[in-house]
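Bug #77: duplicate submission created two jobs. Keeping one. Sequence:
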Amino acid sequence: MASKATCPAGGTWFDTLQKSFVHVPIDASNGNAIETSAFLDAADSLATLFDVLGSIAFTPVKNDMLGNIKKVRDRQLATPSESENLQSLVLNELKTKKHTAAEGLLWLVRGLDFTAQALRNNLSNPSDELSVSFRAAYTNTLKPHHGFLVKPVFNAAMSATPYKKDFYAKLSADEAKGRQALDTWLSALEERLSVLKEFQARKESKW
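Kept job's structure:
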């Protein structure tokens, strides 16, 4: 599992990641299959972003994401030959009339989409503070699926986001470099989420 790392001198926080979404393969010749191990490693690395956000209020959000990663990884470890890519993992599990990993991946994609939309909102609207960007993303992604017990937990996290100047300072000492690295990483994440959301919308991916 990725751990919290210090931004290297002259570099960015993204240089510390065990795996970047930039390096997660998409096999266009095989229905845009996404390699399971690489994707889960990149998602593990993304979870350390909640350490950068710096508030204990984000711990439940991070733990929720890690729990969903574990559900998918457990299925991969149990049936490696059927789980080389995420799409095969889901379809093969559903054939057994189970959906633990498939549901875990669904919630993982939602959590990653929430994070991606929040960061994209902030890059696209530089005058907004992170709290504004994260609240808009939450409303658009996770909130419709959350019950009344979970919503306050996430609302607390939205209220605990740092000032954007402090956040970008943690990404890199050079804000322009940090924003560029964020955009590159984010674009790769968005591309892979688009593939998975399209897959999850298909009839054969549901239970």
